[in-house]
Specification:
With about 150 residues, the protein is of the alpha/beta class. The protein has six helices and four strands.
């Protein structure tokens, strides 16, 4: 049916958006099978996954492989990861195209200051958050979507 790729800054509420989208899709008349693929699917820690380029490349490879295995005409796959690199989003588009399914990118345009605050909140509660160094690196390297007006 479709591949939905969420593209966001770190700590911008992407998992909440993915869950809301999945629930809304499940409530439609056609009742499609909806699956969210994210780092937690593979029990990966967000800080370990983005510690260095090798770890991040491995993470993208694991996610890409799982997306490739999961694509079919009978389900909707939501990739709930940062997907912050244009080339990686293009690779996912190629997988969708090769499978003959629709592809869309859900871009959550959240201000960096809000992301910073939302990264601090879980820290105070003892929940998972991005280490400061990793957060700064991810914000710096984020390749924002460019929307073309028609």
């Amino acid at each position: 049916m479709a591949l939905v790729v969420i593209c966001v800054q770190p700590s911008s509420g992407k998992s909440i958006a993915a869950t809301c989208l999945a629930e809304a899709l499940k409530d439609t008349e056609s009742k499609p099978y909806v699956r969210i693929i994210d780092e937690t699917t593979f029990h990966l820690n967000r800080n370990q996954s983005y510690t260095d380029m090798t770890a991040e490349k491995n993470l993208r490879g694991v996610l890409r492989s799982e997306v490739d295995r999961s694509l079919s005409n009978d389900n909707i796959i939501i990739v709930d990861s940062l997907n912050n690199i244009k080339g990686y989003r293009y690779e996912l588009w190629c997988l969708a195209r090769a499978s003959g399914i629709q592809y869309c990118v859900l871009f959550c345009d959240v201000q960096e200051a809000s992301c910073r605050k939302w990264n601090e909140d879980p820290r105070e509660k003892g929940e998972p958050y991005y280490d400061d160094k990793i957060f700064e690196d991810l914000v710096r390297r984020f390749e924002k979507l460019r929307v073309m007006a028609s």
